[in-house]
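Action item from last week, closing it out:
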Amino acid sequence: MRLPRSFFARSALEVAPELLGCRLIRELDDGTRLVGRIVEVEAYLGDGSDPASHAHRGETARNRSMFGRPGHFYVYRSMGIHRCANLVCEPSGRAAAVLLRAVEPLAGEERMARLRGVPRGPGLANGPGKLCQAFDIHLAHDGAPALRGELRVEGPARRDEPIVAGPRIGISRAAELPYRYFLAAHPCVGRSPLNRRAEPFALGAGDAQRVCSADRIAWERRIS
């Protein structure tokens, strides 16, 4: 089922945990269909409060897609090597996004393994770079719609596992903020020592804003 644009036109802190359990779909030119269940994400804010966000210093040629309409992809190259796929959130100009960190392969796993050059298994797409390799996501997908087309996200989310929130990975600023969400103990979630610092997260109106705002205040006090 297609997600409405209004799903993404909200705070990244609301969208991120609700993406867990949704499906990432990629249709290749030869008709192969790759499908994965989203199991780990990270939110990056666009209101100036998140120094780890690519939008923190304003719009550039690289991050322009973040400033566009919600419900589009923002794809960039990390450290000159890996591609990372994000979903743009909030109204145009706000420049918030959710990084897709890991998926559970549901269809096309053999093709994903060939694209990555590794055997099948739970580690096939358990990192942003691995995910983009497995789903053949390129910089050409930057700015592409996420609601339809060859690369898209569909819902509704179906999840039985509890959700946890914890520190973000691979960044040097504001890493402590609990803006990474994942399905607890899922085998396809990336293995990181930071997972031990994750805490249970309950979906509900205002939960993301309330919990994360408290942590943001504590973090700001530590660095002030």
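Closing note: The chain has a mean pLDDT of 90.
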